[in-house]
């Protein structure tokens, strides 16, 4: 758990089983968009875990303090990501819908340790997407999405356990809307052959970048975490153009998400993540 801290903000505000049996299903528009985003995120994870599997030797993993079987686990995750990606692509293509193609990725790691830190961040996004999107799928696909979700959770637990963190840091995981998951993934994309029909939000960062904001506008940091069904809202104290600070509530742990909003607390999670976000979200791995 982490005690109360202040965060420097930077923001720009603009107004499954391994071999599933495939069956052709009539897809709704929500199914199509959900599967396209699922494929988009699975492509990202496939590139990540394939790189982790092939990029380091067993000796390097052990020298970095990981269990002797950890490279084998990472390679097994890569194989399962390939199977999930193929299944999602087949589900779309059997209905005459093109599956998302792999993008060029910005995956910054140079050691086993930096790899697992990145893997925890990216896998948490995919896990949150499946959790937050279950009700958007038609009943026939809800079970498929839930089965992928449970495997994603196991992947994340293996990664976190290997890095010495708790494999279950919170009682609940944080769901993500499609808009939030798609926006979060952009941090790891260099270029892509196509964009999905999902809104992209301006970025929110904690790295001191500056960007224009509307003078006199009251801003708040909405924090979505596993300890509450609705977001926590903290006022942003502006310190310069496009910059400010906000205080995190006490007692947070695991992975949380923060977004810039003009609301002081009257938005539900659904409202915040669909229409109420001015910039963000940003991901914070606290434990």
UniProtKB/TrEMBL annotation:
Task: Name the species this protein comes from.
Answer: Aureobasidium pullulans (Black yeast)
What InterPro entries does UniProt report for this protein, alphabetically?
Answer: Rds1
- A Pfam short name: Ferritin_2
**Keywords from the UniProt entry:** Signal
Q: Can you say what this protein is called?
A: Uncharacterized protein
Segment forming the signal sequence: 1-18
The keyword Signal appears for this protein: yes
Can you tell which superkingdom this protein's organism belongs to?
Eukaryota
């Amino acid at each position: 758990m982490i005690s109360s801290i202040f965060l420097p903000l930077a923001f720009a505000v603009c107004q499954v089983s391994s071999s599933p049996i495939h069956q052709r299903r009539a897809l709704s528009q929500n199914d199509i968009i959900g599967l396209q985003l699922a494929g988009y995120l699975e492509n990202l994870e496939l590139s990540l875990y394939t790189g982790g599997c092939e990029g380091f030797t067993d000796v390097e993993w052990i020298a970095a303090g990981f269990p002797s079987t950890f490279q084998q686990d990472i390679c097994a995750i890569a194989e399962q990501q390939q199977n999930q990606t193929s299944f999602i692509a087949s589900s779309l293509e059997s209905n005459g819908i093109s599956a998302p193609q792999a993008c060029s990725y910005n995956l910054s790691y140079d050691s086993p340790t930096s790899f697992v830190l990145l893997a925890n961040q990216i896998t948490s996004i995919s896990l949150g997407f499946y959790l937050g999107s279950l009700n958007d799928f038609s009943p026939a696909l809800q079970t498929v999405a839930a089965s992928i979700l449970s495997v994603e959770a196991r992947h994340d637990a293996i990664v976190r356990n290997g890095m010495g963190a708790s494999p279950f840091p919170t009682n609940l995981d944080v769901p993500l809307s499609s808009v939030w998951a798609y926006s979060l993934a952009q941090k790891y994309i260099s270029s892509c052959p196509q964009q999905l029909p999902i809104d992209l939000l301006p970025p929110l960062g904690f790295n001191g970048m500056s960007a224009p904001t509307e003078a006199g506008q009251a801003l708040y940091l909405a924090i979505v975490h596993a300890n509450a069904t609705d977001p926590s809202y903290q006022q942003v104290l502006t310190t310069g153009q496009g910059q400010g600070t906000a205080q995190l509530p006490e007692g947070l742990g695991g992975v949380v998400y923060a977004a810039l909003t003009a609301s002081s607390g009257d938005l539900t999670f659904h409202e915040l993540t669909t229409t109420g976000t001015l910039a963000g979200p940003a991901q914070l791995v606290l434990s």
